[in-house]
């Protein structure tokens, strides 16, 4: 009898007709239980790919626990709905430097899985972007180093 009550109480903690924003806000609530967060994540799964950008946007908080729940929801939606994902919306989020770094990094990793080569193309123009500056500079230095080695090889061949 007590377990039935607990299940009913957990079910009532998440709004019945919740949209993505309501569900995400529920997950971000500090005193929301793990069971309630699980239910909210399951409902976000039902919403599908339209929840991806709001999930990325909500990952900017200081508390890593809700961010991990949101990341889990994002990853599950990507895995289940890969063919339906609008890479344009995710890429738009990625390119907006005013958005949170955690969400933008996840967006970049996801786009790289969906469209290989996205990471390199993005980092070419990200030197001024605080969230990706180090990776962009590393990539640039690697290209310079590779180019220098190629030129050295050509000089050795001529000699």
Terminal-residue CA separation: 87 Å
The main pleated sheet reads as:
none
- Tell me the total number of β-strands: 0
Low-confidence stretches: 1-17
What global shape is seen?
A: elongated
Which secondary-structure class do the elements indicate? mainly alpha
SSE order, one letter for each helix or strand: HHHHHHHHH
- Beta content: under 5%
Q: Percent range for helical residues?
A: over 70%
Supply Rg: 21 Å
Q: What is the overall number of helices?
A: 9
Account of the 3D structure:
The chain is mainly α. It has a domain at 2-85. The protein has nine helices and no strands. α2 (20-28) runs antiparallel to α3 (34-47) and α3 runs parallel beside α5 (64-80). The model is unreliable at 1-17 (pLDDT under 50).
Describe this structure in a few short sentences.
This protein has a domain at 2-85. Helix content is 71%, strand content 0%. It contains nine helices and no strands.
Describe this protein with a few key phrases.
elongated, mainly alpha, 0% strand, disordered N terminus
Break the fold down into its secondary structure elements and pairings:
Layout: H1 2-13, H2 20-28, H3 34-47, H4 52-57, H5 64-80, H6 87-95, H7 101-114, H8 118-123, H9 133-158
């Amino acid at each position: 009898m007590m377990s039935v009550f607990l299940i009913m109480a957990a079910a009532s903690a998440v709004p019945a007709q919740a949209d993505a924003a309501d569900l995400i806000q529920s997950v971000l609530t500090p005193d929301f239980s793990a069971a309630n967060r699980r239910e909210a994540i399951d409902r976000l799964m039902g919403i599908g790919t339209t929840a991806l950008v709001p999930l990325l946007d909500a990952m900017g908080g200081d508390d890593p626990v809700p961010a991990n729940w949101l990341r889990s929801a994002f990853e599950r939606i990507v895995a289940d709905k890969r063919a339906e994902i609008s890479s344009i919306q995710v890429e738009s989020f990625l390119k907006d430097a005013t958005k949170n770094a955690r969400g933008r990094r996840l967006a970049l990793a996801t786009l790289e899985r969906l469209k290989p080569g996205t990471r390199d193309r993005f980092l070419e123009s990200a030197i001024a972007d605080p969230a990706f500056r180090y990776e962009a500079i590393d990539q640039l230095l690697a290209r310079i180093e590779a180019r220098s080695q190629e030129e050295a090889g050509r000089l050795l061949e001529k000699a």
